[in-house]
Amino acid sequence: MSLPPEKASELKQLIHQQLSKMDVHGRIREILAETIREELAPDQQQLSTEDLIKALKRRGIIDDVMKELNFVSDNVDQEPPSSPKQPVCFTDRQSTLLKKTNIDPTRRYLYLQVLGGKAFLEHLQEPEPLPGQACSTFTLCLHFRNQRFRSKPVPCACEPDFHDGFLLEVHRENLGDGTRMADSTAMLSISDPVHMVLIKTDIFGETTLVASYFLEWRSVLGSENGVTSLTVELMGVGTESKVSVGILNVKLEMYPPLNQTLSQEVVNTQLALERQKTAEKERLFLVYAKQWWREYLQIRPSHSSRLVKIFAQDENGINRPVCSYVKPLRAGRLLDTPRQAARFVNVLGYERAPVIGGGGRQEQWCTLLAFLCRNKGDCEDHATLLCSLLLGFGLEAFVCVGTKAKGVPHAWVMTCGTDGAITFWESLTGHRYIHKPASPDEPPAAEQPKPLYPYRTIGCVFNHQMFLGNCQPSDSVEICVFDLNDESKWKPMSEEAIKSVCAPGATVSLPPFPPLCASTMDASVTSNEIEMQLRLLVSEHRKDLGLTTVWEDQLSYLLSPALASYEFERTTSISAGNEEFQDAIRRAVPDGHTFKGFPIHFVYRNARRAFATCLRSPFCEEIICCRGDQVRLAVRVRVFTYPESACAVWIMFACKYRSVL
């Protein structure tokens, strides 16, 4: 059967796309290398095409290709099972099956496809990775109306091979009629953008925020047949927010197809009106903020040196009111208590915003999606997330901006109890401190409570509804009175003014808050992997020192209760189970033998990096390099998982040996 040239070209393109998705070329290269290594006789110079085809058939590559090229299959059960660790995304083939089975035909969907990238010039010289070789990868994370998606990782390149589709449900809220499908006019009023965050992960698992982009998707409502293609230029972050980092080719499609599309003029007019309305609200708030600041300085000229932070720059270099970085956030069933929420925020990595050259600290407050996808951020990111979670748990929480020792700027969280008790929460460590103000009027001989917290001064406190500047004679935390209703001590901003720019849906420039995602990590498997790697590293280290290594599995197992107890104490501030652990160890160590143990805690899963850190401790090195009679070594790893693939990794090294005097 002959095909017209254009149909033949289209068919070739489809087959090429499918082969690229399956990485058939990479698999063929592997098999070719293996065949040459195993089957090529020394007197032969080259393999014939027939030999290569036989090798491909023998390994099932051709059968796999033929199965995959069968795009439409009536038997849905033949869909390849997806691993629970796979990202939530839809390829073309999967979407065909989903449209036949799982898609609700009464709902409206936006199908967003990312069809490759180009001009990622930072990776222009990057060589193509060999099959099986570890390489840096790009991952695209999306958030749209409480739905989150993550693309498959693709190798970093000048033209990264993104080929992913995401099915975004466009639903209307507070309608009372859940069965009614949103039409074009209703969808035009949905101003939520698609937030796209590009993350780079290096070969050691370290993540970097590459770009953060808000995609205006409603142009598809004015496109013919409800389908449009866009070229999205991604800009850098922080100091590089004016520099292009690359381009993504994006295709948008409404499903089911729109019965009636709007004119492009109507869509453009709506978008222009929204931008105009937002700009006016932001202008009025700026005028009010300037007036408030003038009044604040008139109280006391020294106020100009206090850390009163009204605006902060996000990762795109845009100034936003600090109150917009906080919102009550409910974690569903992922976190059960405020203290568990504090522990979750604590195990997210701490990293100051990168700065090029010297000149001090670069300040950058991240949007929540960028912080969660990168799994690390600065103290302000941790504080705003913890404050949001504590507000979600029904507490009266505020972010505090001030300084630590040596005048280092810092942000932490404060909660006010109904009885007036003030508690400080350090978001980077999970520690809690009760604040008892010292009285400056007491005689010098009177004993004053010694503060345990590291904070020195405080300039302002804020949450999603309130902003208060500290106008007490001294900004020292130690003697500060936290009666927030006393306007002689705390100058408030108008709640109405804050609501005009920070309330949900108040402006189109306000990034929506994403929901938290459950961990995709298997704690048992990850614990086992790290433990095996550490055993190997210890054995190699001792071998280099001329020492043999004998592991005792039972002793390793007995260390588990101690690690569980340490994590429980970090989460609840309650110590439990220590007596049983000590009793078990006494029974496991014979008379005349000595036991030594060394626990340590990490928030990353890199075994080699953890081992290098452990060796820097003289006590741990003494255990790992133990010499003596009947030396038995043990190591136990316990990974505790939290939302967003955050984790607390506890490691304990131990040894027992016969004491020889």
Molecular structure report:
It is a single chain. 32% of the residues lie in helices and 23% in strands. The protein is α+β, with helices and mostly antiparallel strands and 661 residues long. It has 17 helices and 23 strands.
Tags for this model:
five-stranded antiparallel beta sheet, alpha+beta, single chain, 661 residues, flat
Describe the SSE topology.
Blueprint: H1 5-21, H2 24-39, H3 49-58, H4 61-68, H5 92-101, E1 108-118, E2 137-144, E3 147-150, E4 154-155, E5 163-170, H6 184-188, E6 194-201, E7 207-215, E8 227-235, E9 244-255, H7 264-299, E10 311-313, E11 319-321, H8 338-347, E12 349-350, H9 368-374, E13 376-377, H10 379-392, E14 397-403, E15 409-416, E16 422-425, E17 432-435, E18 457-462, E19 467-470, E20 490-492, H11 495-502, H12 523-544, H13 553-558, H14 560-572, H15 578-588, E21 593-602, H16 607-615, H17 618-624, E22 629-641, E23 647-658
Parallel strand pairs: 12-13
Antiparallel strand pairs: 1-5, 1-9, 2-3, 2-4, 2-6, 6-7, 8-9, 10-11, 14-15, 14-18, 15-16, 16-17, 18-19, 19-20, 21-23, 22-23
Helix pairs in contact: 7-11, 8-10
Protein name: Centrosomal protein of 76 kDa
InterPro entries: CEP76, CEP76-C2, CEP76_C, CEP76_N, CEPT76/DRC7_peptidase-like_dom, Papain-like_cys_pep_sf
Domain Centrosomal protein of 76 kDa C-terminal: 520-658
Q: Helicity, in percent?
A: 25-40%
Strand content: 15-25%
Q: Could you give a short account of the major beta sheet?
A: 7 strands, antiparallel
Unreliable runs: 71-101
Rg over C-alpha atoms, rounded to the nearest angstrom:
30 Å
Distance between the termini: 92 Å
Based on secondary structure, the structural category is: alpha+beta
Q: What is the overall number of helices? A: 17
Got a strand count? Answer: 23
Overall shape: it is: flat
Strand order of the largest sheet: 17-16-15-14-18-19-20
What number is the mean pLDDT? 84
